[in-house]
Specification:
Layout lengths: L4 E2 L20 H14 L4 E3 L9 E5 L11 H7 L3 E23 L2 E19 L5 E7 H14 L10 H15 L9 E2 L8
């Protein structure tokens, strides 16, 4: 089932999310719905607060990135079919060089900016069966995870850009908050208007 994505300005996007337990109601169905919602909006990641739930859960599927022309064969192979669920994630380490990538967000449609993040991360999380993992990721996989992890910490990608860039996108952010946009996917906008 496709759920509405919560738009910029909604208080839930600024909450530090709560951990969940294995008996969280309808968890598998929720994750399926999140994937349906993400694919419908052509996203590569989606966090629970983006559908209005302040819980430590996010998903990703790096497959769309595997079609980028600037990838090595190894990167392409790693991204193609890279699909994961992260529950109660805890970022343990971010290291390496900072690198820039033009990020967007399903909760902030029609806004993209270059964001600098560290290239390698170590993250602890539970999968959908509540098996605990500690993994190291790099490149675009790490990038998506960092972006989605920020969501469960109440942080948006726009928090990582310069004051000047923030000033430049201020009007676009206001339009999202006022519901004066027409996203091409189902949204619940702070101003009360609904997308498609």
């Amino acid at each position: 089932m496709i759920l509405p994505i919560v738009g910029y300005g909604a208080p839930v996007l600024r909450e530090v999310c709560k951990e969940i337990t294995p008996d969280y109601p309808n968890l598998k169905e929720l994750v399926e719905n999140m994937y349906d919602t993400m694919y419908n909006a052509y996203g590569v990641g989606l966090a629970a607060p983006q559908i209005g739930l302040p819980i430590r859960l996010f998903i990703m599927d790096g497959t769309p990135f595997s079609e980028d022309d600037d990838l090595t064969d190894e990167e392409r192979e790693r991204l193609d079919g890279f699909k994961k669920v992260f529950i109660n994630a805890k970022m343990l380490k971010e290291e390496g060089q900072e690198w820039s990538f033009n990020e967007g967000c399903l909760s902030i449609p029609h806004v993209r900016e270059d964001v600098y993040r560290k290239e390698i991360i170590t993250i602890e999380y539970y999968d959908l069966d509540f098996v605990k993992h500690t993994d190291v990721f790099d490149g675009k996989v790490a990038r998506v995870i960092q972006h989605e992890y920020d969501h469960i910490e109440g942080i948006l990608f726009t928090d990582h850009i310069s004051t000047l860039k923030k000033q430049m996108i201020k009007k676009r952010l206001s339009k999202i908050m006022e519901g004066k946009i027409n996203p091409d996917y189902k949204m619940k906008l702070f101003g009360g208007k609904k997308g498609r």
